[in-house]
Amino acid sequence: MFLPYLLSLTGFLATNCPEGTSPSLSNPNLCYFFGTQRLPYMNAEENCVARDGHLTTTHSVAEDIYLSRKDL
Fold first, then answer.
1. Which phi and psi angles does 37 have, rounded to 5°?
2. DSSP β-bridge partners for residue 30
3. What's the domain range around 44?
4. How far out from the chain centre does Cα 36 lie?
5. Residue 7's CB: how many other CB atoms inside 10 A?
6. How far is CA 53 from CA 12, 56, 57, in A?
7. What residues have CB less than 8 Å from 32, skipping those under 6 apart?
8. Which keywords label this protein (predicted)?
């Protein structure tokens, strides 16, 4: 399965997210990067790890809605 990947980067204050990333709504230390390539799951995770992050998961409906709208 090939899916666009979403990387969550930790260790940044949301107001200081790296360029090209979006701050989390619920965690001030979390930034999101929206990958534009379609990659198999393991390749997407490897790409995220290379950027000091991991594929993301959501833990609230609000965060899920926020992320799904950012991906438009």
1. -85, 150
2. 10
3. 2-70
4. 12
5. 22
6. 11, 9, 12
7. 6, 7, 8, 9, 21, 22, 23, 24, 56, 67, 70
8. Signal
Tokens of 17: 């997210």
| pLDDT number for residue 25 | 78
- Give the pLDDT of residue 7: 55
Q: At 23, which amino acid appears?
A: P
Number of domains in the chain: 1
Average pLDDT of 3-23? 64
Please check whether residue 18 is in contact with residue 8, taking contact to mean a CB–CB distance below 8 angstroms: no
Q: How far apart are CA 53 and CA 72, in angstroms?
A: 22
Q: How many residues does the chain have?
A: 72
What is the pLDDT at residue 46?
A: 94
Tokens at residue 66, please? 């926020």
SS3 64: helix
Place 1 in a pLDDT band, splitting at 50, 70 and 90.
very low
Task: Say whether pLDDT at 5 is over 60.
Answer: no
